[in-house]
Amino acid sequence: MGKEDMQLFWGSGSGPCWRAMIALEEKGFGDIEKTHINFSEKGHKGPDVMALNPRGQIPTFKDGDIVVNESMAICLYLEQAYPNNGNKLLPTETKDYAKVLQMAIEEL
């Protein structure tokens, strides 16, 4: 899979969407296809999003036939699937890794 197979569904003003966009940028995928979803027009409840995420929430990330919902899941997926692309999203030292996970999960 490559950049041409990636797509991000996002909405402006959404912290989780920005988290996913920053992670994509850090991993070197900032120029993938991005589909802006208009919250005020209930675009996140439209058929395109609902087909990928029955909860009707964004961000939603597609990488070929893999669909990942939730910003933290997108970040973890990118790090696992593309460990050698761009910048590391997670520290390798256990103590630092635990701290990052704790802070990230507190945001949920």
Automatic annotation (TrEMBL):
<dbReference type="GO" id="GO:0006559">
    <property type="term" value="P:L-phenylalanine catabolic process"/>
</dbReference>
<dbReference type="GO" id="GO:0005739">
    <property type="term" value="C:mitochondrion"/>
</dbReference>
<dbReference type="InterPro" id="IPR004045">
    <property type="entry name" value="Glutathione_S-Trfase_N"/>
</dbReference>
<dbReference type="InterPro" id="IPR036249">
    <property type="entry name" value="Thioredoxin-like_sf"/>
</dbReference>
<dbReference type="GO" id="GO:0004364">
    <property type="term" value="F:glutathione transferase activity"/>
</dbReference>
<protein>
    <submittedName>
        <fullName>Glutathione S-transferase A</fullName>
    </submittedName>
</protein>
<dbReference type="InterPro" id="IPR040079">
    <property type="entry name" value="Glutathione_S-Trfase"/>
</dbReference>
<keyword id="KW-0808">Transferase</keyword>
<feature type="domain" description="GST N-terminal">
    <location>
        <begin position="4"/>
        <end position="86"/>
    </location>
</feature>
<dbReference type="GO" id="GO:0016034">
    <property type="term" value="F:maleylacetoacetate isomerase activity"/>
</dbReference>
<dbReference type="GO" id="GO:0006749">
    <property type="term" value="P:glutathione metabolic process"/>
</dbReference>
<dbReference type="Pfam" id="PF13409">
    <property type="entry name" value="GST_N_2"/>
</dbReference>
